[in-house]
Amino acid sequence: MIWIAIADDHSLFRRGIAMIINEAENLQLVSEASNGKDLVKALSENPADVVLLDLEMPEMDGVETLAVLKEKFQDVRVVILTMHRDEQFIIHLMQHGANGYLLKDAEPEELERCVEAVYEKGFYASDASYKALMTNATQGFMKIEVPDFAGIVKFSERELEVLKLLCDGLTTQAVADRLFLSPRTIEGYRKRLTEKTGTKNTVELAIFAVQKGLVKK
Q1: Which entry of 11, 76, 94, 158 is 20 to 30 Å from 38 by CA?
Q2: Which CATH superfamily is domain 2-136 in?
């Protein structure tokens, strides 16, 4: 079961998200808040695995709240829920610890996929966030400081296959299903890929893959 907390100053929107969560078999809503301060207090009393965080809230907005969450609750995954589509804004939030970025007009099914992905692998790339990441990676705005592995490190066909699927935003389980392998095997490939590339997580791995031409934008 994945424990969820919501912070949004619009009660009708919170209620709609709560309904989606309560209808999902593996999700459980543990707390709601209308601003960042109340969210921090709620998490101290009722820990959550994933926080769905609005940006424009009174008292403590989403940007400030994100920083506080990453300092006080380092294990919590944070998904930004907003209508902002600006790519530089998305990049800024991802660089400062957001695990996912989802537009408020997303379908309920995508919200469920997003929560499951950030809980399982720490990262979810919606169409908007993936486009922002890949655009900035190819333009060099998010250059990852890693060694030049060209001609030194070789990737197997299977490793490249797994890499491309991970960069497409698939969860470990989804990659395993696609390749008819076990989730444990996919995690093994993910670990080897990060070790070979010198990256720390899936976000950096995706950026590295684009910068080195291992996957197409």
Answers
A1: 94
A2: Response regulator (3.40.50.2300)
